[in-house]
Amino acid sequence: MREEITEQTKRRILLLMSPATYRAGAFLSAAQSLQLEVVVGIDLPESLADYWHVPLGVDFTNIQTSLQTIMEFAREHPLAAVLSVDDSASELAAHASAALGLAFNSPQAAEAARDKLLMRKLMSAGGAPCPIFREFWLSDDPQEIAASVSYPCVLKPRRLSGSRGVIRANDPAEFVVAFQRLKRLLLSEGEPEYGTSFLVEDFIPGFEVALEGILTHGQLKVLTLFDKPDPLDGPFFEETIYTTPSRLAEKTQQDIARCVSLAAASLGLREGPVHAELRVNEQGPWMLEIANRSIGGLCSTVLEFGSGMCLEELILRHAIGEEIASVERDKHAAGVMMIPIPAAGMLKAVHGVEQAQAVPLITGVEITAKLNHQLVPLPEGASYLGFIFARGETAAEVETAIRQAHQLLHFEIRREIPVLSRMRG
Questions:
Q1: pLDDT of amino acid 304
Q2: Cα 235 from chain centroid?
Q3: For residue 379, cis peptide bond before it (omega within 30 degrees of 0)
Q4: Interval 80-119: pLDDT, tens
Q5: Under 8 Å CB-to-CB from 288, ≥6 apart: which residues?
Q6: How many whole angstroms separate alpha carbon 408 and alpha carbon 192?
Q7: What is the residue extent of each domain of the chain?
Q8: Which residues form the ATP-grasp domain (predicted)?
């Protein structure tokens, strides 16, 4: 029987998340502080969802079936908002919100924010500065493609996130190697050789920044702009250090915000959080990607707004239609390092965590990689060793502290030994 709609049910939200997400704790904690009722929808088959006592098991890749599941649930338990914690469910959240009449981005906009080819086409048509790009297919001859593109270029899968599969090539020989590597990765992800396309883009020189914002009726509010002090020039594009506030000139920051606003409008994004990645050079800012979600991993913990409000609380308030009194970030400088995986192999030990935590301005060191588990670096990998957090008076001080802490960490990784070598013993 459908429950009567009360003030409490108007504060019930559905959070869609993958089983391995880093982000569940922050959103659940924020929801609890706001006294929201949370229903968790996890990317699990129904049988496993029942086994693990998950309230709602949905298959993120099967939009129609999962949408039906959500609609049936919502008929009995009305929802005030449907949010995707990760990229993986952003399209499902958009479809569900549209079907339930909730304010969110259209399914078409959500798809464009996930599909890099569609994103590029819409950005180009909308006038947002972005790299020149071409579409090719896994079934194409890599030698022929290599002879037809300009260099340096970047090969990029359409739907993988976190820089997975993104590889720079400086000449035809490097292109062929990169093509084969990307092809192996996509085939391992279940993509068919025939019918799967990817992008080849011109490499844009310059430095990278990341903008965290929130959209309300299509209007962008900038929450913060992160500098990325480490060069990201390839051959892979592994994120490392983010610091805020940005040390860029005010005019450059304004140009970046305008560029992101134009990109969001080009895709049709109108509501909720956005995380945008850009390159900046003497010609100005260039859009790389924009996602309709907040920053990934544990990075959001360095952000604080208003009277101690965390990023997830701000997002949830916005989702249920509350007026956000202030989006002013705490005035202290803050930073985070996503600790890169240096080599493939099994993680056997981690040393120096206590020493790293003792570095002045360091507020936390979280090692998220599990001991005795295999590590896979980019471009195939999808995770980091962990995170280093810092807070101080200036972004420069924060960056220095993070680098000092990172130098104190040592990871014992048992490299993989080829089978033939072991047999020769």
A1: 83
A2: 20
A3: yes
A4: 999 999 888 999 999 999 999 998 999 999 999 999 999 9
A5: 130, 131, 204, 208, 277, 278, 279
A6: 44
A7: 9-104, 132-202, 207-414
A8: 120-320
Q: Binning pLDDT at 50, 70 and 90, where does residue 300 land? A: confident
Is the pLDDT at 425 greater than 50? The verdict is: no
Question: 207-414: which CATH topology?
Answer: D-amino Acid Aminotransferase; Chain A, domain 1 (3.30.470)
Contact 301, 337 (CB under 8 A): no
Q: Report, as an integer, the average pLDDT of 8-28.
A: 85
pLDDT tens digits, 29-60: 999 999 999 999 999 876 666 666 677 889 99
3-state helix/strand/coil string of the chain: CCCCCCCCHHHEEEEEECCCCCCHHHHHHHHHHCCCEEEEEEECCHHHHHHCCCCEEECCCCHHHHHHHHHHHHHHCCCCEEEECCHHHHHHHHHHHHHHCCCCCCHHHHHHHHCHHHHHHHHHHHCCCCCCEEEEECCCCHHHHHHHCCCCEEEEECCCCCCCCCEEECCHHHHHHHHHHHHHHHHHCCCCCCCCEEEEEECCCCEEEEEEEEEECCEEEEEEEEECCCCCCCCCCCCCEEEECCCCCHHHHHHHHHHHHHHHHHHCCCCEEEEEEEEEECCEEEEEEEECCCCCCCHHHHCEECCCEEHHHHHHHHHCCCCCCCCCECCCEEEEEEECCCCCEEEEEEECHHHHHCCCCEEEEEECCCCCCEECCCCCCCCCCEEEEEEECCHHHHHHHHHHHHHHCEEEEECCCCHHHHHHC
C-alpha closest to that of 14 among 91, 64, 78: 78
- CATH number for region 9-104: 3.40.50.20
Query: Has residue 190 got a pLDDT over 80?
Result: yes
Evaluate if residue 281 carries a pLDDT over 70: yes
Given a cut of 70, whether residue 418 has pLDDT beyond it is no
